[in-house]
Automatic annotation (TrEMBL), chain A:
Superkingdom, taxonomy of origin: Bacteria
The protein's name: Branched-chain amino acid ABC transporter permease
Gene that this sequence comes from: livH
PANTHER family found in the cross-reference section: ABC TRANSPORTER PERMEASE PROTEIN, BRANCHED-CHAIN AMINO ACID TRANSPORT SYSTEM PERMEASE PROTEIN LIVH
Sequence similarity: Belongs to the binding-protein-dependent transport system permease family. LivHM subfamily.
Transmembrane segments: 12-29, 34-53, 59-78, 90-113, 142-159, 180-208, 263-284
Localization, UniProt: Cell membrane
RNA-binding is among the record's keywords: no
Taxonomic classification: Bacteria, Bacillati, Actinomycetota, Actinomycetes, Micromonosporales
TrEMBL record, chain B:
Segments traversing the membrane: 26-43, 49-67, 97-121, 128-147, 173-192, 223-244, 250-269, 276-293, 305-328
Identification of the protein by name: Branched-chain amino acid transport system permease protein
Record lineage: Bacteria, Bacillati, Actinomycetota, Actinomycetes, Micromonosporales
Cited PANTHER family: HIGH-AFFINITY BRANCHED-CHAIN AMINO ACID TRANSPORT SYSTEM PERMEASE, HIGH-AFFINITY BRANCHED-CHAIN AMINO ACID TRANSPORT SYSTEM PERMEASE PROTEIN LIVM
Membrane-related topology note: Multi-pass membrane protein
Record carries keyword Amino-acid biosynthesis: no
Pfam families: BPD_transp_2
Length: 292, 335
């Protein structure tokens, strides 16, 4: 029972990170109808920036801010220089271009930093508090929940309460009409990519210390988990992405805890297959109108 | 967004319809076989080994280009399918020491795996299919570690190969084996895609509804395309096992699957010649990048420079000429 409780909290903490990452995928999907397969690689690049800044200055938080800012800029750069020019006549094109970006980012990181795993430190201790003899949460878990919660609240407010958020939704939903009404559609698209890349960088910052360490391919498996989370919730639904993230996090935690860590990727694959075959639109899909 | 630049919608693959004179597949294959034979007797051993690697790559890219180019299904899981073939080959070979039997087993097992994935794939489109096959590609190390009594975890298995017959050097023997596999595959695929099967998979790619109205069984066609391509990947996996004389999960990383996609895109999707060109580049570019890395004296550059080059090539080709390098020539000629 103790173990179950511990695994549940651990799963929720992992799930929060997957939720953030899935949210980044959903943001781009809603804005541009592209699943950004380069998200993982871009996030790793941001974590490397944080690593370098922390190394040079000795401050984790400077590195943290640097990663988020770098994420924003990388998002803008990718959209402005590459993704904007993708021919959308076939849905394959966007995917293939993103895969090309994965190769470029991983190659550049390998050239700059080498291909060995680097341990990366956390700002808070990772040993859990005990309540009545049961290990529950670590300080780091609390930090993860707070960070992801803040992002979710901020994005919700942005999209539902501000003029910019309204314009972004309008630009994604009806680009032609929006343009006639004076919305800078291209600018909104760039903003969407920047936000998504920043959220992805945050997720990278949170997840890398809990895995093997920093490596150009560190996010490959995380990406698959986050993609699964996004698909579980439906690629169109931010609430779905958060829920999906928590579901995947719990599943991974239970499977790793009871069956062994090596089984976890297989569990994700099974979940993905089950959801795609059972409810391809995701559990929270309600958009029949916008398919392409 | 899509509507910013209304392009005249050209088909992704420039298809040569009608009366262009083409060399019949059988002739091309025989010429290829003769060329390979000559090359294997003139090249030094290491070049023979590289030549063999090209053949093994060609076996899988040929199958993948039929799947992705002609049927529109993007698979990032072919690296995993190759791993399936390679491991099956290794286990069968170490048990019964019969290469034909092992190759056959590799093809059969991988084909079965292809049926399973293909059945799921037939219900998925675009990014969903890519995501699912990506998950398959990532799962390989997990499988080998979980069932480590069979697969021996990250260490992999070494393979007891039969020695080449007579006094043939190992590298030449490997080149013959790989190119025999590649040319047979290419011949079968060329014949297959010229017939009814080829028309069906193209029809499904272009317009599923129209294909269904014309009496094409869409789901069956898609599964069949995946299975054919998986069989090629299985054979290629076995050939890679013959080349390395060992198998390990490290030989089939996600990057391999991405490389395969790059290889078929660069030469023009859906064209066997493009797949051959791509296979050639998969061997040549890393070799060149390695030379450049050694010359610059930087260890970091060696493997990674090839990644960057492949990535840049992939992005540039996709943006500038989605039909691949071959299509550039095509449009120039038409002007």
């Amino acid at each position: 029972m103790d173990r179950f409780v511990y695994l549940t909290f651990d799963g929720l903490s992992r799930g929060a990170v997957y939720a953030a990452f899935a949210l980044a995928l959903v943001l781009i999907w809603r804005a541009a109808r592209i699943v950004n397969f380069a998200q993982g690689a871009m996030a790793v690049a941001a974590v490397y920036v944080a690593y370098s800044v922390t190394d040079a200055t000795g401050s984790y938080w400077l590195g943290f801010v640097a990663a988020i800012v770098f994420g924003l800029l990388l998002g803008v750069a990718v959209e402005k220089t590459v993704m904007r020019f993708v021919d959308h006549s076939s849905p394959l094109n966007g995917v293939v271009v993103a895969l090309g970006l994965v190769l470029i980012v991983q190659g550049v990181l390998g050239i700059l930093f080498g291909n060995e795993y680097r341990p990366i430190e956390t700002p808070f201790r990772r040993d859990a508090f005990e309540v009545g003899g049961i290990a529950l949460l670590s300080r780091y878990d609390v930090f993860v929940f707070a960070a992801v919660g803040a992002v979710v609240v901020a994005l919700t407010l942005l999209f539902t309460r501000t003029a910019v958020g309204l314009r972004m939704r309008a630009a994604a939903f009806a680009p032609d009409v929006s343009r006639l009404l004076g919305v800078p559609v291209g600018g909104m698209l760039t903003l969407g990519w920047a936000l998504a890349a920043a959220v992805g960088s945050l997720a990278g910052m949170l997840v890398v210390p809990t895995e093997l360490g920093l490596h150009p391919t560190a996010m490959d498996v995380v990406f698959v988990s986050a993609f699964t989370a996004a698909v579980v919730g439906g690629l169109d639904s931010p609430i779905g992405a958060v829920t999906g993230g928590l579901v995947v996090g719990l599943l991974l935690s239970y499977v790793s805890g009871y069956l062994g860590a090596t089984v976890a990727p297989m569990a994700v694959l099974f979940l993905l297959v089950a959801v795609l075959l059972g409810r391809p639109g995701g559990l929270f899909s309600h958009s029949k109108a916008r398919l392409a | 967004m899509t509507d910013l630049r209304e392009k005249s919608v050209a088909p992704v693959v420039p298809e040569k319809v009608g009366r262009k004179r083409r060399i019949p597949p059988a002739v091309a294959i025989l010429l290829g076989a003769a060329l390979i034979l000559i090359l294997t007797y003139t090249l030094p051993p290491f070049r023979n080994y590289q030549l063999a690697t090209v053949g093994a790559y060609f076996t899988v890219t040929a199958g993948l280009t039929v799947l992705t180019g002609l049927n529109g299904q993007l698979s990032l899981g072919h690296g995993a399918l190759m791993a399936t073939g390679a491991y099956t080959f290794a286990l069968t070979q170490n048990r019964w020491l019969s290469m034909p039997l092992s190759v056959l087993a590799a093809i059969v097992v991988t084909t079965l795996a292809g049926v399973v994935i293909g059945l799921a794939a037939a219900r998925l489109r675009g990014p969903y299919l890519a995501g699912l096959t990506l998950a398959v590609a990532v799962v390989v190390p997990s499988v080998t570690s979980t069932f480590d009594t069979t697969f021996n975890s990250d260490m992999g298995l070494s393979i007891a190969l039969d020695p080449p017959p007579g006094t043939i050097p190992m590298e030449r023997w490997q080149a013959w084996l790989c190119w025999a596999g590649a040319l047979v595959t290419a011949f079968l695929l060329a014949t297959l895609t010229r017939g009814r099967f080829g028309r069906d998979i193209r029809a499904v790619r272009d317009d599923e509804t129209a294909a269904r109205l014309a009496g094409v069984h869409v789901a069956r066609t898609q599964v069949l395309a995946f299975v054919v391509s998986a069989a090629c990947a299985g054979l290629a996996g076995a050939l890679f096992a013959v080349l390395a004389q060992s198998v390990s999960p490290g030989a089939f990383p996600l990057t391999l699957s991405l490389f395969l996609v790059m290889a078929i895109v660069i030469g023009g999707l859906g064209r066997l010649v493009g797949a051959l060109l791509g296979a050639l580049l998969l061997v040549l570019l890393p070799a060149l990048a390695q030379t450049a890395g050694e010359r610059s004296g930087s260890q970091h550059l060696e493997g990674n420079l090839a990644l960057v080059i492949f990535g840049v090539v992939l992005v540039v080709v996709m943006l500038a000429a989605p039909g691949g390098l071959a299509s550039i020539r095509f449009t120039l000629r038409r002007k």
